Amino acid sequence: MPAVSVVIPVHNGAAFIGRAIRSVQTQTLADWELIVVDDGSTDDTAQIVAGFADPRVRYLRQSNQGPNAARNRGLALAGGACVAFLDADDWWLPGKLSAQMRRLAEWPGAGLVYSSAQIYSEEGRLIGCEWARVEGRALETLLFGNWVTGSASSVLIPREVFAAVGGFNETLRHLEDWEMWLRIAAAYPLAAVPAPLVAITRRSESNSRQAAEMNAGVLRALQIAFETYAAHCVSLRQRAFASAHVLAGTYFGAVGQYAQARRSFWSALRLDPWVPSTYGRLAFTFLGGRLNRLGRRLKTRWQGEVARRRLQAWEGKRSAAGAPD
After folding, report:
1. Closest to 275 measured CA to CA, from 241, 308, 251
2. How confident is the model at residue 202 (pLDDT cuts 50, 70, 90)?
3. How far apart are CA 306 and CA 318, in angstroms?
4. CA neighbor of 200 nearest in space, from 297, 88, 302, 95
5. Domains plus CATH for the chain?
6. How does pLDDT run across 156-187, given as a tens digit for each residue?
């Protein structure tokens, strides 16, 4: 039995699936199996995967059913003691799996181990870092947002956890990973590796339909949580939904749907009027598309520069300390 089963769901990922697979092959932990689940690709994904002459790499194909179904298919075939997921357009740094296995050994009751993440644009430009800060019993914290940095590509989960909480919810098209982390956090503590050992490709929300689906997804995920495993957190329900509406407003604003963004921010303020930043977000929707786009560009540039400096500092400390693989 391998130590880790890695599951990569992919749909039309010929441009980047090779990079993802190579990042698994270069892990300092060699005891793994890789299951690539092709979710109905129509490009050269299959041929690229076939080019990897590695007996640890398995490829299987299914009709297009969405990433949740692909992850669950891989999960059903996983034979490892732990399962890690990697989206096809993301990649890992070499010590990712070994660092997480060490952290799990330090915290054997943890239901999920995640790491900090480097964030890149579709063009390959560093645009930010997300730093892992949440550990322990974290359900109440996660109700206010997906604090599992790097999300699906970041986590390593003991396989028996899925037997307890189930697989990914295939009725959700967006935020399905967050809903899964909520389920796990309701039953287990979370553990974190502070090093940024996963690289995430952040794709721009390109249309209003996607934003509407994200809005529906975040609200549906919270509804599921409060109706089941988070029912005892009812005192947080109103504030949590306010936070969800703020997130939805941000999605709508990013695609220029300012009227819909305003509706989302107003919904948030009706539920929780004591958050000053929500008023600021609402005000920005009245500035018009040009100023909003300029503001987003400047923010992205600033975040990228901050991330670059913090990564340099982290790499310097790591080299000086002779960090283990």
Report:
1. 241
2. confident
3. 18
4. 88
5. 4-201 (3.90.550.10), 208-286 (1.25.40)
6. 999 999 999 999 999 887 788 999 999 999 99
